[in-house]
């Protein structure tokens, strides 16, 4: 992929921040805090402001996927030119409920927008094909990621592939150990650093299953144990954790995968939907 076609510059910086060493981390934090200033700085000036070396900045640009500092600045500039004004602000105790609603909605829209820039079409296509061909799908999520796993199960049960959502760490590793080749484990972990989720993926791989992860951090431990990695993005504020605002982005990725698989299994989906409507109708007045 050409450098000048890379999008989501700031989202990429946020994504790799936890995995950076101190010098690169200092530069990354300065970029996130002063994006409007960066596009007007030479690499020498940025090195001075960030109290770092030019070589460190160049390494960071390469780590982000750019050929050099100029390519990075071009991508950053396109990131800053938005058709809609960014009105993201911190929620304050004096805000009215309507103002809070506006800020929460804006935060969610930004999470979706940032995540869309991180979507890799090849990874998405590979995930859709892998799920379509799976003999069984197991969705794993713990804590705040558990509802995402349940939502995925709620959708994919309709496409005619045996699937389940497991939100208990013991059941995850037990089930992973009993999987057969052809099965797929789809793990959701915002931080990508949950020990239990990583262990479940390792166990699933040893059993011959294909592993997919959905996370905010591309350099996290969970990605090392995943055959396919899908990324989401979000921002943290005083009253909403980063994980909270990432949920809507992760749900949208799940929706995209479901629609993609559904198009490949249209006849089965339509038949199953009719069966579901018939049985659910009996539970309504």
Automatic annotation (TrEMBL):
HTH rpiR-type domain mapped to chain residues: 7-83
Taxonomic classification: Bacteria, Bacillati, Bacillota, Clostridia, Eubacteriales
Domain SIS: 127-267
GO molecular function: carbohydrate derivative binding; DNA binding; DNA-binding transcription factor activity
Signal peptide: none
CDD domains: SIS_RpiR
InterPro entries: Homeodomain-like_sf, HTH_RpiR, RpiR-like, RpiR-like_SIS, SIS_dom, SIS_dom_sf, WH-like_DNA-bd_sf
GO process terms (BP): carbohydrate derivative metabolic process
Keyword Nucleotidyltransferase: no
Species: Desulfosporosinus metallidurans
PROSITE patterns, alphabetized: HTH_RPIR, SIS
Keywords, alphabetical: DNA-binding, Transcription, Transcription regulation
PANTHER family linked: GLUCOKINASE, MURR_RPIR FAMILY TRANSCRIPTIONAL REGULATOR
Membrane keyword on record: no
Coiled-coil region: none
Protein name (record): Sialic acid utilization regulator, RpiR family
């Amino acid at each position: 992929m050409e450098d000048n076609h890379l999008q989501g510059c700031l989202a990429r910086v946020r994504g790799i921040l936890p995995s950076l060493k101190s010098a690169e981390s200092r530069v990354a934090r300065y970029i996130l805090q002063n994006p409007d200033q960066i596009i007007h700085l030479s690499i020498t000036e940025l090195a001075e402001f960030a109290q770092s070396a030019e070589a460190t900045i160049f390494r960071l640009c390469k780590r982000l996927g750019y050929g050099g500092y100029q390519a990075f600045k071009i991508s950053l500039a396109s990131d800053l030119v938005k058709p809609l004004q960014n009105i993201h602000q911190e929620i304050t105790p004096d805000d009215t409920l309507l103002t809070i609603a506006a800020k929460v909605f804006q935060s969610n829209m930004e999470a979706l927008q940032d995540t869309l820039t991180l979507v890799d079409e090849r990874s998405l296509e590979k995930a859709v094909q892998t799920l379509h061909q799976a003999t069984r799908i197991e969705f794993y999520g713990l804590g705040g990621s558990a509802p995402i796993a349940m939502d995925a199960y709620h959708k994919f049960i309709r496409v005619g592939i045996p699937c389940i959502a497991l939100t208990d760490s013991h059941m995850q590793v037990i089930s992973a150990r009993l999987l057969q080749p052809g099965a797929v484990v789809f793990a959701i972990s915002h931080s990508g650093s949950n020990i239990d989720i990583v262990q479940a993926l390792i166990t699933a791989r040893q059993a011959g299953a294909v592993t997919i992860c959905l996370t905010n951090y591309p350099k996290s431990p969970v990605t090392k144990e995943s055959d396919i990695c899908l990324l989401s993005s979000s921002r943290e504020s005083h009253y909403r954790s980063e994980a909270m605002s990432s949920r809507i982005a992760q749900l949208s990725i799940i929706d995209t995968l479901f629609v993609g698989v559904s198009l490949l299994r249209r006849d089965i989906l339509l038949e199953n939907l009719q069966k579901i409507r018939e049985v659910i109708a009996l539970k309504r007045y």
